[in-house]
Design brief:
By secondary structure, the protein is of the alpha+beta class. The protein has 6 helices and 17 strands. It starts with 8 loop residues before the first strand and ends with a helix.
């Protein structure tokens, strides 16, 4: 059984804070938190961690980052980002995923406000993720830029499910594309153009062939689609017909194969992520 199983996923709102950051300019931590009070020489993102190194080469402990104020920017605008709390993700006790409570100043009032909306559990936390996300939902590698994703967002959900883009699976397969495919699936981004076709709170089941997330039966759910990093490879039924019908899918994504025969779509050799969702046809048949 995978340590990262998450039996039923509820889709939350998109929660990516677009702060692809030039991280050369930032405020030093207060001496009380920094320990030595020495200037910060560098900040990098390792996995989901802010790794802060002082001028004497010391890497600051995660808990000592509480109270630190980083100045981040996108090359034009800058904003202060205060770290208010740090904890290991309770869903990932291996310590590889850190969660941060982060706030920035409200430009009108000057008050500090949390940058994240509540997720399905009411948590308002997030973490940095190296790389840049484009308007069409593609994740590009970068050694000098990062974005901050909140736990209610697709990027964070997929990391917490076990699709860590900086890691490889036990057989040596890089998980970057699995993470990308997962974000497409979470948003029902069938066309791979960054446009989602789902609603907040929609339940789905996610699984893959690496055993990171495992398939399971769920009431009223049937196979929906097979996914790759560029969107859906084939679709058996759309997630929410009121949002997008199969006919509508054919109109906007003619390259996405429609495959009502579940077995044929589910066995697509190129699929990295697969999912089930509530199929109105199944519900209607059961009601008769």
């Amino acid at each position: 059984m995978s340590a990262h199983r998450n039996r039923l996923v509820h889709i939350g709102r998109h929660a990516l804070v677009a702060v692809a950051a030039a991280i050369s300019s930032m405020a030093a931590m207060p001496p009380a938190e920094a320990g030595t009070g020495q200037a910060i020489s560098s900040i990098s993102v390792v996995g989901t961690r802010f790794e802060v190194t002082t001028a004497d080469g010391r890497v600051v402990a995660q808990q000592d980052l509480v109270g630190a104020v980083l100045t981040i920017g996108d090359g034009q605008d800058r904003m202060p980002l205060r770290i208010d709390a740090v904890e290991i993700d309770p869903r990932n006790p291996d310590g590889e995923i850190m969660l941060y409570t982060m706030s920035t100043r409200d430009p009108a009032s000057g008050a500090w406000r949390n940058i994240c909306k509540p997720d399905i559990e009411g948590r308002r936390m997030g973490f940095p993720l190296a790389g840049i996300w484009t308007q069409d939902g593609r994740h590009w590698r970068s050694d000098t830029a990062f974005s901050i994703t909140c736990t209610g967002g697709a990027q964070a959900k997929c990391v917490r499910f076990g699709y860590r883009p900086w890691e490889t699976s036990p057989d040596g397969t890089p998980l970057w594309d699995h993470h990308q495919a997962c974000t497409r699936m979470i948003r029902a981004d069938y066309c791979g153009d960054g446009v989602g076709h789902t609603r907040n709170g929609t339940p789905i089941v996610i699984y893959d062939r690496k055993g990171i997330q495992q398939d399971e039966a769920a009431p009223d759910m049937s196979f929906e689609a097979a996914w790759g990093p560029d969107g859906a490879l084939c679709v058996s039924h759309t997630r929410i017909p009121d949002v997008l019908t199969m006919e509508g899918l054919a109109a906007i994504c003619p390259g996405v194969r429609q495959q009502p025969k579940i077995a044929a779509c589910e066995s697509d050799a190129g699929a990295l992520i697969l999912n089930r969702s509530i199929d109105p046809r199944t519900v209607q048949a059961a009601a008769k």
